[in-house]
Amino acid sequence: xxxxxxxxxxxxxxxxxxxxxxxxxxxxxxxxxxxxxxxxxxxxxxxxxxxxxxxxxxxxxxxxxxxxxxxxxxxxxxxxxxxxxxxxxxxxxxxxxxxxxxxxxxxxxxxxxxxxxxxxxxxxxxxxxxxxxxxxxxxxxxxxxxxxxxxxxxxxxxxxxxxxxxxxxxxxxxxxxxxxxxxxxxxxxxxxxxxxxxxxxxxxxxxxxxxxxxxxxxxxxxxx
Length: 224
Hints:
The relative contact order is 0.11. The chain contains 5 helices and 5 strands, in the order αβαββαββαα. It has a 3-stranded antiparallel β-sheet. By secondary structure, the protein is an alpha+beta fold. The radius of gyration is 42 Å and the shape is elongated.
């Protein structure tokens, strides 16, 4: 049987230890919190990558993504080609009052047009202001952190390997073309040098030099 009041004494001891311990409370907003890079704060739009495929809007469980677009006809790139039609983005908006920050829209985007940003300070007094249009979504891209560095022991992605092979092949072709041009230039220079020393050059010694002539002969060998 324990001593009466021992439980109360233990509880008060815990309370005293907690009261004397230094607090770890961050003085927000004077001290900004250190958030992980993958914090789901707000979604940024990289508009140049958007092809208006509508995957994000169709997969959103809350239907909080609004996209409007129209089609434009693109002239052929080469004479005789066919005209093409492309989608042009008119509106891209996300209603963060409905968004549940699941990240499905970012995962299903095949062209990397949506990114998470750890920014979270966008509270509004009017709920209608929580619908961010594409201009506002584009501004959030400046707060998107850089991707983490690749593991040096990881296998190189196939896309990077293919791009490197193509670049090496192009560099080798350019080097071969430069070598051929240098060789052709050297051959032309050699041919030009041979032309100056060839049969067209006047010969200084033709066997009838003035020093070999007799005193009584003229240039034709006849005596005067």
